[in-house]
Backbone:
């Protein structure tokens, strides 16, 4: 059970179980609580009640440092607004999580970063993030999330700020990357094209979660 | 952990505000650095200029004015020391040498100073840069900065104006340049030294020697006319004090220029202390303002820091990235401020030197940078506060804004 309390309970999820390697969509209108749910599952926002367990690890029972380590090791996050550092190059943005643990980026991670950008269709890894198109920036953000081959991939409206063509492409890349790495994928979206392609769909409405048709 | 690329990216992104903050810090620290360096340069230059003047004897009056007039050649009307006292001083056994200093005339703004030949060589201690010393009444030895070659002739002009009209020129009197002093970095580089006898004669006072005697230098058996000052090189330390005591009378005053300068330096030191205090307060205020401004920048970038934390950055990583960002601004600002302070002090010293005729050499010294380094240390300490606040961002709230 996960709950967030506000003036009244704003989100109440009695039970949610995700199979390892599954790909699931959460749909629902704006303000339904999709982002709050993802934040709780990512160890970002502490729910007022309930537990979050990934492979038996109780996320909110961990000390903060351990939760930070868990996010670094197990989780890939993709945001609607990409949130790249505009002063860094595409490659440096992808390699950013490696700086949390290393004074100097290991060659193996640098090679993986370059391969990810190449595979996701970002032609010039040395270009500054500030000059990339929105579609390119979302691919760089996706590469950043995939750098450490996460077991869990959470994406919050990954196609919402892209045009239809770019959205389709990013959606495909996201699903392919999750499948290739065997990651559990959970995507909050109201992009119908993306919803259609995800095998499992949940609907969150007024803070209540149900299996969508 | 390596937060520097994140700090560098933030600096590049907000380079305008970073440059502005560094400039403010630089200007604030430059003031403190420059004041100290300039004061030290002025003090050294002033002391150096008085090196050749162990004891100065003049008519009763202001000791500071006597030193300014005789040592620094600052034009002023000073009362004349009576000729009888001049004769007595010149005959003192405690004096290794002594020389009258007589002003009045000039050549294109360069003061013509009447002296005894001993003054030209400082009793044998000073080697001329070229030529020889004074031997006849028409000889002149120029300072290093006087634009006259050996063998050139000049007519003295009354007063010190740079372009006098013909009515002020002593056309019947001609000096020939026979020697040049080495550069001293003092007002004497601009002076033209001539025998004091010729200065007396031009002004109708005779030459101090018996009728028909044309030699130069003491003794002046006919009784020398009065002069503004006499510079004396005592034979010994004790002799210097004896002479000073002997000529502190109703008819004369005797001063050690070093003693007068010590008083001036005390005042200069007080002024420097006040200016340094103001500069320190200014630097502290500027650094406080910069840290506060950075705090506002950190608050505005809360979402960026939340993203870093969300993708796994420990709070310490964000803290260090922010601390390095402001630290880099402070380090660059303080380093630029130290350089700017020294450059400013050198420029101010040069301007001051030009107006006073003293070469004020401002040399960089770490003692001047002390305040700047204290400001830097304080700033780096204070920078930890906004960095800490930025690292403790509420992830959920910041990511939803």
Residues:
């Amino acid at each position: 059970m996960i709950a967030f309390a506000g003036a009244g309970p704003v989100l109440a999820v009695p039970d949610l179980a995700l199979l390892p390697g599954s790909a699931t969509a959460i749909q629902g209108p704006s303000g339904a609580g999709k982002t709050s749910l993802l934040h709780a599952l990512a160890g970002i926002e502490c729910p007022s009640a309930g537990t979050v367990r990934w492979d038996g690890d109780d996320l909110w029972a961990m000390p903060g440092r351990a939760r930070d380590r868990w996010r670094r090791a197990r989780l890939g996050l993709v945001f609607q607004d990409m949130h790249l550092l505009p002063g860094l190059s595409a490659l440096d943005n992808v390699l950013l999580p490696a700086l949390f643990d290393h004074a100097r980026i290991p060659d193996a991670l640098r090679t993986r970063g370059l391969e990810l950008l190449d595979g996701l269709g970002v032609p010039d890894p040395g270009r500054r993030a500030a000059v990339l198109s929105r579609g390119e920036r979302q691919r760089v953000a996706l590469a950043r999330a995939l750098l450490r081959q996460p077991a869990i991939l959470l994406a919050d409206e990954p196609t919402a700020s892209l045009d239809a063509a770019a959205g389709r492409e990013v959606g495909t890349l996201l699903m392919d990357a999750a499948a290739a790495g065997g990651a559990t994928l959970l995507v909050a979206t109201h992009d119908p094209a993306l919803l259609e392609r995800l095998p499992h769909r949940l609907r969150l409405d007024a803070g209540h979660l149900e299996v969508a048709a | 952990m390596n937060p520097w690329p994140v700090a560098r990216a933030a600096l590049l992104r907000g380079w305008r505000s970073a440059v502005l903050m560094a400039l403010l810090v630089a200007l604030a620290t430059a003031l403190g650095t420059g004041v100290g360096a300039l004061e030290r340069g002025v003090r050294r230059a002033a002391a150096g200029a008085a090196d050749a003047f162990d004891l100065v004897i003049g008519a009763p009056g202001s000791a500071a004015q006597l030193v300014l007039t005789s040592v620094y050649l600052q034009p002023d009307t000073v009362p004349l020391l009576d000729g009888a006292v001049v004769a007595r001083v010149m005959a003192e056994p405690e004096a290794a040498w002594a020389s009258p200093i007589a002003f009045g005339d000039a050549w294109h703004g360069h003061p013509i100073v009447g002296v005894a030949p001993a003054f030209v060589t400082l009793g044998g201690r000073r080697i001329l840069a070229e030529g020889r010393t004074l031997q006849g009444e028409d000889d002149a030895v120029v300072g290093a900065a006087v634009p006259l070659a050996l063998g050139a002739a000049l007519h003295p002009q009354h007063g010190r104006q740079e372009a006098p009209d013909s009515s002020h020129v002593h056309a019947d009197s001609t000096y020939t340049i026979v020697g040049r002093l080495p550069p001293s970095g003092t007002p004497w580089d601009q002076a033209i030294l001539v025998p004091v006898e010729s200065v007396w004669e031009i002004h109708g006072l005779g030459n101090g020697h018996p009728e028909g005697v044309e030699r130069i230098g003491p003794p002046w058996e006919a009784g020398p006319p009065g002069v503004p000052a006499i510079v004396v090189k005592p034979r010994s330390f004790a002799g210097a004090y004896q002479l000073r005591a002997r000529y502190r009378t109703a008819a004369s005053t005797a001063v050690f220029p070093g003693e007068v300068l010590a008083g001036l330096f005390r005042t200069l030191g007080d002024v420097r202390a006040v200016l340094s205090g103001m500069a320190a307060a200014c630097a502290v205020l500027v650094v406080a303002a910069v840290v506060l401004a950075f705090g506002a920048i950190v608050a505005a970038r809360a979402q960026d820091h939340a993203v870093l934390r969300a993708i796994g950055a420990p709070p310490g990583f964000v803290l260090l990235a922010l601390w390095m960002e402001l630290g880099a601004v402070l380090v660059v600002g303080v380093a630029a401020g130290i350089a700017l302070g020294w450059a400013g002090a050198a420029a101010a010293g040069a301007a001051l030197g030009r107006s006073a005729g003293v070469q004020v050499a401002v040399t960089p010294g770490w003692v001047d940078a002390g305040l700047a380094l204290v400001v830097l240390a304080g700033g780096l300490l204070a920078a930890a506060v906004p960095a800490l606040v930025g690292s403790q961002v509420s992830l959920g709230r910041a990511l939803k804004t």
